Amino acid sequence: MRRINNPQELEKIREEILTRRDPNKPCITICSGTGCHAYGCEKVAEAFRAEIRKRGLEESMDIRTTGCHGFCERGPVVVINPEKIFYQRVTPEDAGEIISETLLKNSTIDRLLYTHPQTGEKIVREDDVPFYQGQMRVIFGNNGKIDPTKIEDYIAIGGYSALAKVLTEFSPEEVIDTIKRSALRGRGGGGFPAGVKWESCRNARGDKHYVICNADEGDPGAYMDRSLLEGNPHSVLEGMIIGAYAIGSDEGYIYVRNEYPLAVRNVGIAIDQLRDCGLLGENILGTGLDFEIKVNRGGGAFVCGESTALMASLEGQAGEPRAKHIHTVESGLWDKPTNLNNVETWANVPLIISRGVKWYTSIGTETSKGTKIFSLVGKVNNTGLVEVPMGITIREIVHDIGGGIPGNGELKAVQTGGPSGGCIPESLIDIPVDFDKLTEVGSMMGSGGMIVMDDRTCMVDIAKYFLNFLKDESCGKCTTCRDGTRRMYEIVDGITRGEGRAGDIELLEELSWVVSEASLCALGQTAPNPVLSTIRYFRDEYEAHIKDKRCPAGVCKALITYLIDQEKCTACGRCKRVCPSEAITGEKKVPHKIDPEKCIRCGACIAECKFDAIEVV
Amino acid sequence: MITFTIDGYEVQAEAGQNVLEVALDKGFDIPHLCYHEALKPYGACRLCVAEVTSGKRTRLTTSCNYPVIEGISVQTSTEKVIRARKMVIELLLARCPDAPIVKDLAREYSVGRPRFTADNDDCILCGLCERVCREVVGPDAITFLGRGSSRKVGPPLEINPKTCIACGACVYICPTDCIKLKENEKERTIVRWGRTLPMKTCVVCGRSFAPWFQLEYFRKITEGIPKDFWDKCLDCR
Amino acid sequence: MDSQAIDQILQKYDYGHSSIIAILQDLQEKENYLPEKDLDYVSERLSMPLTRIYRIATFYNAFSLTPRGKYLVNVCLGTACHVRGAARVLDRIKMYLGIDVGEMTKDKLFSLETVNCLGSCALGPIVVIGNEYHGQMTPAKVESTIKKYRKRSSRKKDEKD
């Protein structure tokens, strides 16, 4: 694209793009987020392209590969615009039929439509799918409208108008004031007011100020930042440029996980485009603003999500946090004032500027405004990314949007906040989801992972899972965090192996207190949360493991036995074939048996049995 | 000058100092294992925790890396401080059951047998050795390796660090005495790092006095000293 | 890797000390791991102590100081994958390949590693082999999935012969 020298030219280009585009022209959008990629969406897109070429239809329909639509469970997802016809689990073989039936004849293909799980009704439009109905997709929704590698697409939906607005109408102080009044809180976990942070950074003395986008999304089970950077990188970049103007920074960094190759690629493309058209670099939009952004790839360390560790990593050091007695807004990267926000926080900024504080603050609760993107995963029917207004209940998210628990399972708990968060029991799912409520019940917002657990999830095992994670991901500097989490792991591991003793729970609580009180950084300070929250709400489950040597959920291997229900077994032999330890015996037509000595409880037989004949006791 | 209180007593310190160094200087007893006055504070062992009140907020924090601030009040032995310290000692004792310095602390704080499975380690990962090597002497021969519960200290390839001059600073500074030095007429060995260097004899008296490689290192980094200075032993210089 | 190729990488980052992580990432992309002599060379060319390089190489998960197999089998142990049984999948893979996490099979075909979340949680449990994602894995699917790569590899060998 040509260079854009001033805000007027930006508007002109936008008009040109829009006049070139016919909003009624059919457009096949193919979700190309990482989820759909894994399901082979590339081949689907290729099939569509080939089919269009073959039939010479290039002029009468467009094809667009977009960012993640969120409903990853149903990928590859294809949406036909302008009608927004929603096709799921599309294969390359479906391409021809979709073109001839839906695009040329205007009829829908039942087989590819989403079926309402309760009513059995076929749903045609994307917006009518229950998964999308309960959402408020003001940030994430644009993912489905644009090709992330085309800046024209972003400009067409109003992109960079917020930047033009602040550069022409706002002083830096007015931008900060706007963000403060919007009450935007950091989406990375802590929930610190973004405007206040910006202000402190702007006011901090120093010849140079940095802005950083934290895209080191390390919470296992959270991937909204990945999808935003992959699917709509310009929204994040626009937020960063606005922030740079407000704070007085001329250099920014994006620290992104190397495990996210598509995000690295797309954000790199977007930055190149911005440089080409003068929205990044010197004299942005002719307003005298200079700003550059560099992309750094993380090396795979959860602790680098912590701001001081992230900055150490940017400086080319091991990601070891330092004490924050002097805040990073005063002395951060290279000891200069540094403002760090996460991906989703930055993406909120253009929206606040464009739609105004009044609109923004009308969404959400008293203390938490706007929307939040959650990754709704685990034991839930509709897994994927959901954007909801703050204040919605967990029940609405899990049951209405998520479609409840698969099979005949029952909801047991929801884990939020990753390794720093906790497990919220079913009895509390009517609390409104916001920063403070989640903290109140012993969890936290974190970056937005929401892992649904059913009655076959063992809460002691979950605590062990997080401790194992934390003992490896701790940088290892503080005695309390390094040895404390390891000792907690050993105790919980013992409990799951049937070696729990009276007093273990109390010792865990004692250790928890010290690890959280005496560790240097947030990783250690919040590390006990998964243990404390599971003890708080599921103490009986701990006690069953310790006293009765029993795992009620049937997960902890040392405490369970696999049995074949002789009534249900049809002697089909499938379990016997998949058993890796030759523990299953039985002749044709004779119900099979499992030798508990040989059985390694790998679960292969359970997954294979079509008759639900294998019991865990 | 900055004025603040430690356990109720008013003390004065220079800006830029940290609470622990001031407290030790004024005679307050705060246990510490990873702090040394010659090195930058690191905050790893967590033994020097104190309760610091700044404004309305009181919190537990390590005193070694807490900067002195006008008007703060530091409490060095509240119930919380002792509780945290005892657990830190218990964790360290479980890690290094035979380290005399940890055993002494356990006795002092009435910490009994650790409730955790004893490790067979001798290093508490205080990092004094790697810091003295880098910050004071300079060869930068050893470092932290790995992270989390598998963190350790050692040479890059875990043996025979190429830049080690066998000066023995790490041996001297180690609080648990787990880095040993062996020496005879011909060579000096830093046992833990697997580093053995041949010794040089004094050009004057003929006694073997320091590793040859170490003297070359000093010759290289020092200026304005007569060239043969490093060829003579301490007595003959 | 020859020194010219390493120099190319170093040049790309302007011999900047703060880019050491990116330099090691690029090096590893080419070599599959970080060979000792390459690190010596990097240290020399950057005038950077080996201690710093090794500290970084052992701190970040992404780096390996030992050679890895032709196919890297990476099992996601994110929370979403965990609650859907990733640990059982991992156990099965260990058993089938006869190696532990961080090891390589004797035929140098497979290395086994784990990752804490790939951000593809909706597909869990996920196993990535080479660059290919395998979603909704179960212990029963392990053998057939890995066998495909073994076949693919022997086919390629046949073609070469």
How do the helices and strands line up, and which of them pair or pack?
The complex is a heterotrimer of chains A (617), B (237) and C (161).
Chain A (H helix, E strand, L loop, with lengths): L6 H14 L6 E5 L2 H5 L2 H15 L6 E5 L11 E4 L3 E3 L7 H11 L8 E2 L6 E2 L6 H4 L17 H6 L4 H9 L2 H11 L11 H10 L6 E6 L8 H8 L1 H15 L3 E6 L4 H16 L4 E4 L4 E9 L9 H8 L23 E5 H13 L1 H5 L9 E8 L5 E6 L4 H8 L9 E6 L5 E4 L9 H6 L8 E6 L4 H15 L5 H18 L7 H15 L3 H5 L2 H18 L15 E3 L9 H5 L5 E2 L7 E2 L9 H5 L5 E3 L1
Parallel strand pairs in A: 1-2, 7-8, 7-11, 8-10, 12-16
Antiparallel strand pairs in A: 1-3, 3-4, 5-6, 9-10, 12-13, 14-15, 14-16, 17-20, 18-19
Helix pairs in contact in A: 7-11, 7-14, 8-9, 8-11, 10-11, 10-12, 11-14, 18-19, 18-22, 19-20, 20-22
Chain B lengths: L1 E5 L2 E5 L5 H7 L23 E6 L2 E6 L10 E3 L3 H17 L4 H9 L19 H10 L5 E3 L6 E3 L14 H5 L7 E3 L3 E4 L4 E7 L6 E4 H10 L16
Parallel strand pairs in B: 1-5
Antiparallel strand pairs in B: 1-2, 3-4, 3-5, 6-7, 8-9, 9-10, 10-11
Chain C lengths: L2 H10 L7 H12 L4 H11 L3 H10 L11 E6 L2 H5 L2 H12 L12 E6 L11 E3 L2 E3 L4 H22 L1
Parallel strand pairs in C: 1-2
Antiparallel strand pairs in C: 1-3, 3-4
Helix pairs in contact in C: 1-3, 6-7
Gyration radius of chain A, rounded: 26 Å
Please report which band the strand proportion of chain A falls in: under 5%, 5-15%, 15-25%, 25-35%, 35-45% or over 45%.
5-15%
Number of strands of chain A: 20
* CATH level-1 class of the largest domain in chain B: Alpha Beta
- CATH architecture field of the largest domain in chain B: Roll
Give the biggest beta sheet of chain A: 5 strands, mixed
User: What kind of assembly state do the chains in view correspond to?
Assistant: heterotrimer
Distance between the termini of chain A: 65 Å
Kindly give the count of domains of chain B: 2
Describe, in plain words, how this protein is organized in 3D.
- Chain A is built from 24 helices and 20 strands.
- Chain A is of the alpha/beta class and 617 residues long.
- In chain A, a hairpin with a 7-residue loop joins strand 18 (584-585) and strand 19.
- Chain A is globular, with a radius of gyration of 26 Å.
- The N and C termini of chain A lie far apart (65 Å).
- The mean pLDDT of chain B is 95.
- Chain B has 237 residues and is of the alpha+beta class.
- In chain B, strands 2-1-5-3-4 form a five-stranded mixed β-sheet, with helices on both faces. In chain B, strands 8-9-10-11 form a four-stranded antiparallel β-sheet.
- Chain B is built from six helices and eleven strands.
- In chain B, a hairpin with a 2-residue loop joins strand 3 (49-54) and strand 4.
- Helix content of chain B is 24%, strand content 21%.
- Chain B has two domains: 2-108, Ubiquitin-like (UB roll), CATH 3.10.20; 128-231, no CATH class.
- Chain C folds into two domains: 3-59, no CATH class; 71-160, Glutaredoxin (3-Layer(aba) Sandwich), CATH 3.40.30.10.
- Chains in contact: A-B, A-C, B-C.
- Chains A and C meet through helix 2, strand 12, strand 16, helix 18 and helix 24 of A and helix 2, helix 4, helix 5 and helix 6 of C.
